[in-house]
Amino acid sequence: LSSIFFKYETFESLQLHKTKDELTKINQTGQCIYYVALCIMQLFNLLTTRTRYASFFSHNPFYGKGQNLWILLSMLLSIGTCILITQVPWSQKIFKTEQVPLIYVLPALAFGTGLFLLDELRKLYIRRNPKCLLERIAW
């Protein structure tokens, strides 16, 4: 791994026993994995940071008093854009992208779920202990 850091597109000087086309495909796949992970984390961040104190379950964007269907629409558009850019063959040729294997999507889902749960626990602690240090340093 240390031999490829800061090489970017100049793989010719490396001795990796792979053709230039294979290295280009690996690079494009890695960039697509990063893009999809970034979009997934963006969705979880959107749901997590909507409110400072209220739980997602008491103030969610899908129904009830905190309903905001624009959030649902934006989430669907973001997912649709990810699928369009990384899965549709004609857009793969245009943007020079590759398909993202599911095994590389799952860690982003796990980290996003972890972020969501930790922030829900933070909100619960702040609601039960107002004026605590965590509340003062949170926002």
TrEMBL record:
It is a multi-pass membrane protein. Keywords: Cell membrane, Membrane, Transmembrane, Transmembrane helix. GO terms for molecular function: P-type sodium:potassium-exchanging transporter activity. One of its GO terms (biological process) is proton transmembrane transport. The chain crosses the membrane at residues 32-48, 69-90, 102-118. InterPro entries: ATPase_P-typ_cation-transptr_C (IPR006068), ATPase_P-typ_TM_dom_sf (IPR023298), Cation_transp_ATPase_P-type (IPR050510). Pfam families: Cation_ATPase_C. Residues 24-124 form the Cation-transporting P-type ATPase C-terminal domain. This is Cation-transporting P-type ATPase C-terminal domain-containing protein. One of its GO terms (cellular component) is plasma membrane. It is found in: Cell membrane.
